[in-house]
Amino acid sequence: MKKYPKLERCPSYLMRKFTPMYIGAALLPVVGMHAQEADESEDVFELSPFTVEASNEGGYTTEETLAGTRIRTNVRDLAASISTVTETFLRDTGVTGAEDLLTYTPSTETGGLEGNFSGLGNTGNLEEELIAPHTNSRVRGLSSADNTRDFFRTDIPWDSYNVDAVTIQRGPNSVLFGVAGASGIVNSALKKASFQDQYRVENTLDEFGRVRFVLDANKVLIEDKMAFRLIGLDDAEKYRQDEAYKDTQRIYATLQYNPQIIGGDQAPTNIQLSYEHGDIAANSPRFTPPDDRITAFFDPNGLNRQVFHPQAAWKYGMQMDRGTRVNDDYPDQWEPWVGQQNPGLIGTNPTFIIDNVTGQVTGIQQMQARTEESIGGFADMIRMNSVAGFNEYAQNVNGGTPGSFPGASTFWKNRVVQDTNIFDFYNHLIDGDNKREYNDFEAFNASISQTFLDGNAGVELFFDRQSMTRGGDSYYQNSLSIDINTHKFVGDPMGGSAVSSWDRTGLEPDEVPDFSTVSGGVVNPNVGRAFVSGDANGREYSTTRKNSRLTGFYKLDLQEKLDDSFFGKLLGRHTFTGLFQKDNVESSNRSYRPFATDYDWVDTLPLSDSGISGYDRKVSYVQYVSGDLRNANVADGLGILPVNGRFSPSGLYSIGYFDGTWNANGVNPEDVWIRPLDGREATQKDNPDNYVGWTTNNFNILNVNNPYDYNKVHRSANKSDIEIESLGVTWQARLLDGHIIPTYGYREDTSTTFSATAPVSDPRSGAVDPNFDLFGQSPAELVIKGETTSWGVVLKTPEFINDKLPFFDDFTFFYGESENFIPADRVGYDGSSLPNESGESKDYGLTFKALDGKMSVKATWFETSQKNAQIPGGDPLGSNSWFLVRNNVWQIGHALKMERIRSVYNADPSADWNSEIGWQSWAYNYAWPDDGYGYDAHVLPTVDPDGNELASPFDHPSLKAQEGMIQAVWDNLFPQEWYDAYGWPIDVAKLKSDDPAVRAQGITDPNFAVNTSANIVSMQPSGNGSINGLTPIGTVDQHSEGFEFEFSFQVNENWHMWANAVKTEASRGSIGENFAAFLQSYRNLYDSPAGDIRQWWAGDRASREYFEDFIWKPYLFQQEAEGLPAPEIRPWRFNFVNNYEFKEGKFDGVRVGLGYRWEDDLIVGNGLNSAQDNLDPNDPIYGGSTDNIDLWVGYNRDLRDSINWDIQLNLKGVGDDVGLVPVSVNPDGSIAAMRIREGMRWELRNTFKF
């Protein structure tokens, strides 16, 4: 687990951190002082065919690549879509990483502040990928590319400090990787040591305070034989959002040795060694504003600054509870803008109250008073109320007026704050310094290559080792709200009665009182204050890669052997390349709570849910970030500040809670008690004042950074070990004197995967051991074999045609097809293994050169397809896939509880239905079907709806319906294998028994019992929703076709132009068969009477309605969207870069450049269909087009003979103001999510070479 030291971003820290590197660089000249000095004349070295020296290319692109056949090949001889940008391009444009580069290159997109898409699709809830932003990319509108370094897969983000060139292969290529995604790769070619002494010191500053240092020292140790290079990076990056930063320290060392073991200069031996170590610690900027739970408070058509007593808001219908329950008795009290304080965040767990001015904790207490015995005075569900998000508001309105927002729970999304007078999200992070991301890595590789037969044969052996750990903690939600509670959550340990009451003189039971007469409780000193809240979550992912690759080639020159005859030219030259590769990837993934309560919390209260993944043990917090805003003017600015301080509790804390111990001597628990809340008759055992009530005690808070607590807070973990063995052969020929160039590649890959979920180390909490031994768990084994091919042909115009061309030098026509697959162990929601993801691509077009090679143009038409791809854009069902994993089991729990209640009555018809703790009425009311029948929760029906006396309460139509619900659950159980796969403690055989006593043993979860009030949703699968460590996914076929235009023009040695234009039509295909079949099985369940069971509690909507909104409607939309454009697709893009350098006259050494990027409209959502019951895939809603202008000016001169100085100023987003770009909209076209667009900013780089 990553520890977080306080990083001092100051020069003294930088010197301490990199002093060993500086000393090493300073000593390099001494190490090599006895080496023979270089000759005056420059030697010409035979370059290894396994190497491309991109740094020797003068312009923005390279002529040669390894991406086509794995040995050095001219790009124009390949029928593939390959683009390479050089170090010169990276330096001119100020690009340092993937997040900058992929906005310039053809058919590529990337997320983040500098990016050109969000990568979120049109999901209902916005989540950001902050831990690994370099992976948030998309190629040809399909999916992210695989990242590689020197053509080995990598999890390490590349940085320009040690990169010579970046190659982008669009579409599959089995010659490179038979086992890979269909989108292609982004490969970084690392710098090599050269046989010339050179040193470089570089410093970059920007307007936000970034300080970036690069030290590059290259030393020849043995002339023409051995050279060593050391490069260090220290990058303290800051952002417009003041609290955000990214500190990067990397060091890279490489050695090149040419011993010429065999054959001298004509058969060079090349040995390369390299090592890199890096640490990245960040509080990454957010590219979306906070969720908006505050604007409606000030809106005259919203809450209009109203505040409420929390108990009144709940009981009398103001609190709509996310649209799931409406108080039909008091429709005039409905207020749809009143919602929960971030639903599910605050309940029976302890909550820390923090003041932002001091950063100090002002109180810690249980917000929802509930113990094992439900207490009537509290109604069991009193929580802190807040302003609803728009999604919750839409559901609330639907609760009172059904159909107002069709599909509210899925299709209507939360809005984000758009007004900086509320909060300045451009310049601040709402959660301040309370978020962390980190990435630590290490890489070592070694290669030896040798050529034979005058360069006509060669072999290379390459070893690559990489290790990487990345992760992060997020403490606060990216959401902003306001406290609308007049009183402090019913009771308070600091004083006040446990019972809230009103003057009810003259009122009938359940008649609405005058809320101004409230007594009891404690006045809330924070009413009207804005707040941020959260409950911490953390995750970590690590990989260890061990790769080895043997490549050999042989060239057969029949043209030479046949003395350049006609047949010799016809048969031409042939190159055969063979490959054997072995890759091993060990990975682990873990999720945890950074802090949680210990068992003393749930044991003392007591509470039923002791699970580390449950609600009762999590730690929540509310931090107030403003004063009282009830009289504030939004236009003048609300003065809301980001969270101050860093929250990380550990050890003993005094926490307030409701003690349910009886403390009323002489009071008969069965005596009548009138509830002051609503005037209803209850008993004294329901009176909170008869218990010890609000008190405080010391409780232990676990913290993941405490070694003793480490294993207690992990919710899930999984590991996998994947080994891939590959054999491949490639043939390329140059026929008819090089005018016909066919290429064919064949590859076999065998993948063996072992995977397992961490064992539970504590059965009571469900906590797991994240450091478990994979092979000690009898891991599941999956072996997959595949064969893939790539082929293409290039036709070049002959010289007799080229000589007659007035403008053009030559033409090249190409056609190629390629494929690959991913043999990953993937599982569907039905628990079965999924078919391999595979990709196919067809690329064809032409290239030409003109003006004596100064101009180069390539036009490519492509058709790329993915089969069985993971549905992109996040959750395929709008963030509700949890329903598929859990709801079937929760319905079993409901059915067992209902059956238990019925058995209590059957055993003793005179039994008091309130005597068995109180859970029975709660579960009993799940029987209410949508037939209009209802009755008091505490009284069994004695007459039917027509007033006729019943022989038995179970003859009532509602209880008959309940019996049908229970039976429908047993009739629609999933196979035992499904429950086992997820780790559910379900015994299907017992549940299908005819004996209710046996069925009651069908769930063995310790957090569930049929005869207690244990919350059904406390039951969670042992893998937290994963199967053998794998997260279930839905699959879809995807297709993309379009046109790519690439242009490069070296007008003269001073002037270089580079451009690309892309048209993309990407669409979704059919949903995977496994996914569709499983959804249909759920459909069958909810079409049965089991669908009448209430989802969350007695008065809730039927679970069938949730299924419709959460699952079925999004699924139908996915089906209906087949063949239509995918989310966030921009049909056209255009990029242009222009650079001019003066080489004489008074401007000698000056260079100026311009970059321009334009993007077409994109689809950000869909309207509703004519039936108003789903989205209409044929009614897309478009966002606007965007463009960006980048400018730079530089100056280069020699300060003295041995020192060269270069300075460059880059202006990015010239003329742009910081602003917002729509990402998704609601069905009515109103904007939901938006992405922050960075405005104009500057960057200054100074470089000294000597």
TrEMBL record:
Annotated compartments: Cell outer membrane
Topological type in the membrane: Multi-pass membrane protein
Domain TonB-dependent receptor plug: 75-184
GO process terms (BP): iron ion transport
GO CC annotations on file: cell outer membrane
Alphabetical list of SUPFAM superfamilies matching this protein: Porins (SSF56935)
UniProt KW keywords: Cell outer membrane, Ion transport, Iron, Iron transport, Membrane, TonB box, Transmembrane, Transmembrane beta strand, Transport
Membrane keyword on record: yes
Major place of residence: membrane
Domain of life: Bacteria
Keyword Iron: yes
Protein name: TonB-dependent receptor plug domain-containing protein
Source organism per UniProt: Pelagicoccus mobilis
